[in-house]
Amino acid sequence: MTIKEVSEKYDISQDTLRYYERIGMIPPVTRTSGGIRDYQEEDLNWVQLAKCMRSAGLPVEAMIEYVRLTHEGDSTIPARLQLLVEQKEILIEQRKKIDITIERLNYKIGRYEKAVETGVLSWEDDE
Questions:
Q1: Model's pTM, two decimal places?
Q2: 3-state secondary structure of 30
Q3: Taking the CB of the first residue and of the last residue of the chain, which one, N or C, has fewer CB atoms within 10 A?
Q4: Three-state SS for 31?
Q5: What is the pLDDT along the chain (127 residues), one digit of tens a residue?
Q6: Is 28:58 a contact under the CB 8 Å cutoff?
Q7: Alpha-carbon span 55 to 74, nearest angstrom
Q8: Which residues face 31 on adjacent strands?
């Protein structure tokens, strides 16, 4: 696939794809004999992973480290596992904070919905 096709398929700008490759967030993409990027299935898998991890808030540095470790071979499997476990734990903590915020918003929304029905919002309801 061309960079344009990948950009459209994954809704990532071509500049972002080039940036990911340049900084090592994805490995170097397969190229034609003329040097044009020719994304293969393995390249697309890396793009999908990078997009998924970034959308979840994974730091760029962690993704770069993961790619680096992968290229070093199977001896880095324990380090890659540890990196992924640590990132998962961070995401779980973030999810807990989001869940608490959603609960608080649901409470406030319920109070405001009641106020819309009754026409009354007491000071305590708006805390």
A1: 0.77
A2: coil
A3: C
A4: strand
A5: 999 999 999 999 999 999 999 999 999 999 999 999 999 999 999 999 999 999 888 899 999 999 999 999 999 999 999 999 999 999 999 999 999 999 999 999 999 999 999 988 876 655 5
A6: no
A7: 27
A8: 37
Domain boundaries, the chain: 1-72, 80-127
- Here the tokens at position 41 are 């299935």
Cα–Cα dist 83/100, whole Å: 26
Dist CA 115 CA 45 (whole Å): 50
Which residue, 71, 78, 85, is CA-closest to 26? Answer: 71
CB of 7 closer than 8 Å to CB of 19: no
CATH-assigned architecture of domain 1-72: Orthogonal Bundle (1.10)
